[in-house]
Recover the amino acids of this structure.
């Protein structure tokens, strides 16, 4: 039985695809057979972040419309053996996805995989709702800014009402908060919302906190999920996040501003 | 300023109002029996009968034709002023109008109409109202208790009574009640109490950051709120058609 996890946010550009790629990689590195599905039909990005864009032949829409088999469309990751990618279509209309089609694909994957990650498109329309509909758990990606927090709040409302679990009255979708692009120095300066404010407003469990990091941009552009870059703070933070998803108790890191040393305070300081 | 100038040129303005009204619920259509009972009441509490306006409710009667004119005469003789009739079949409605009285639909239908108006408002998204997961139990007085966070885009309504939220109401969420709204948590969204016009309704919250507060149609936006009250435990009520707020601490 696979666990279906949707990576969603409402707002665009907060790091859904980066997080989906990094978490999928982390889960696979821990020995779980994992597939990550790009639901962003028309704005396909996951293949780029996963570095497999040149190997895409068939996509999710082809599978749903019966033009290709699932095995033809799945791409095996070249770095991690038990990690697979199911890309989105770049040419089709985003209405090409159907609920029945998605259900069929997920049921077929359910037999072989431990984890199925659904990389949701931004927004709250059909694509985003289909990505979350069959989920068992959700990772809600949020930036430390008010508009992102509000959109995440909206998504949490949908998770509680417009998913299969909600409609059937089953146990609710397990909601996890993942804060990305967190910059403790700017939080201290009051430029960004702080961790506690976000947790208080959204009132769900924090699964991880990813610091704002150059490693993330570098990883995306190179097509190597940042979870591979374990020398970087962001890479380590994603590894921590995956451990927590697997039920381990890992202390939070990277959320406090590292005070400058004495010398930089004397000569380069002047903050506040 | 321009508003005042305009008003000076008008003969009147229409205003919605909910006035206290005595409903005289008839269980007999016999004017003589009504007269006897009124005579007894008049001797008991003469203060009540001072041209008091009443609405004659004939919902409990099952008679196609009423001696409405005689019943009205009996009432007036006892210093009651019938102003309208509620319920009854079409001939009753016609004779009420002929006597210069207003006519109201029967109460059950009226309250159902109000509810359907409530759920037809564009902001309401039936499937988007929080339902399945949080515990919710019908309260005795037609009120509603909701445990959990009311999130952006969600709308929670108590069409017949008070609404109690044990949790926060987030920005972009809307909570509405025919009675009062109680929020045991932060109120960051919109709260509307007394949506059917109850002037005695109030809004109570543990932490005030509300986008909009309204009691019986009188509202304040966040920027109209005294900044000293923000983040505090506050009650909002109506006094002399003015929304007043006071700290509960």
């Amino acid at each position: 039985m696979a666990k279906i996890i949707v990576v969603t946010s409402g707002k665009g550009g907060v790091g859904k695809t980066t997080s989906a790629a990094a978490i999928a990689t982390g889960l696979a590195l821990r020995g779980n057979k994992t597939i990550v599905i790009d639901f962003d039909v028309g704005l396909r990005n996951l293949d780029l972040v996963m570095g497999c864009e040149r190997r895409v032949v068939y996509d999710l829409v082809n599978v749903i419309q019966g033009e290709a088999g699932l095995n033809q469309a799945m791409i095996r990751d070249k770095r991690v053996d038990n990690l697979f990618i199911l890309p989105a279509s770049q040419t089709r209309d985003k209405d090409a996805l159907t609920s029945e089609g998605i259900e069929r694909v997920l049921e077929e994957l359910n037999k072989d995989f431990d984890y199925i990650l659904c990389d949701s498109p931004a927004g709250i329309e059909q694509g985003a709702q289909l990505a979350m509909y069959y989920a068992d758990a959700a990772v809600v990606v949020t930036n430390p800014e008010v508009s992102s927090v509000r959109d995440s709040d909206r998504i949490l409302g949908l998770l509680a009402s417009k998913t299969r679990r909600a409609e059937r009255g089953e146990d609710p979708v397990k909601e996890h908060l993942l804060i990305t692009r967190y910059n403790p120095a700017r939080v201290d300066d009051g430029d960004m919302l702080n961790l506690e404010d976000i947790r208080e407003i959204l009132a769900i469990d924090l699964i991880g906190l990813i610091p704002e990091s150059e490693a993330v941009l570098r990883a995306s552009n190179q097509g190597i999920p940042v979870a591979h870059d374990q020398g970087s703070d962001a890479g380590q933070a994603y590894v921590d996040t995956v451990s927590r998803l697997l039920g381990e108790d890992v202390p939070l890191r990277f959320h406090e501003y590292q005070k400058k040393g004495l010398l930089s305070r004397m000569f380069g300081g002047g903050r506040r | 300023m321009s508003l005042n100038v305009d008003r000076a040129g008008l003969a009147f303005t229409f205003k919605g109002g909910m006035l206290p009204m005595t409903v005289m619920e008839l269980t007999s259509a016999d004017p003589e029996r009504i007269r006897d009972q009124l005579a007894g009441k008049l001797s008991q509490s003469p203060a009540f009968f001072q041209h008091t306006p009443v609405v004659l409710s004939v919902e409990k009667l099952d008679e196609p034709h009423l001696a409405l004119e005689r019943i009205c005469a009996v009432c007036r003789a006892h210093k009651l002023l019938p102003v309208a009739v509620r319920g009854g079949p079409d001939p009753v409605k016609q004779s009420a109008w002929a006597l210069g009285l207003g006519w109201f639909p029967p109460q059950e239908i009226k309250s159902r109409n109000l509810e359907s108006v409530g759920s037809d408002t564009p902001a309401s998204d039936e499937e988007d109202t929080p339902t399945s997961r949080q515990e919710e139990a019908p309260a005795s007085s037609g009120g509603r208790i909701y445990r959990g966070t009311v999130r952006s885009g969600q709308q929670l309504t108590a069409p017949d009574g008070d609404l109690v939220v044990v949790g926060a109401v987030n920005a972009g969420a809307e909570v509405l009640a025919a009675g009062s709204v109680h929020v045991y948590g932060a109120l960051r969204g919109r709260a509307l109490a007394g949506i059917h016009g109850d002037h005695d309704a109030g809004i109570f919250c543990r932490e005030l950051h509300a986008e909009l507060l309204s009691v019986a149609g009188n509202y304040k936006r966040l920027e109209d709120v005294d900044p000293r009250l923000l983040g505090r435990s506050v009650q909002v009520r109506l006094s002399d058609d003015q929304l007043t707020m006071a700290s509960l601490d």
Q: What stands out?
A: Residues 54 and 149 of chain A are 35 Å apart (CA to CA). Chain A has a mean pLDDT of 93. The interface with chain B takes residues 124, 150-151, 153-154, 156-158, 160-162, 166-167, 169, 172, 200-203 of chain A (CB under 8 Å).
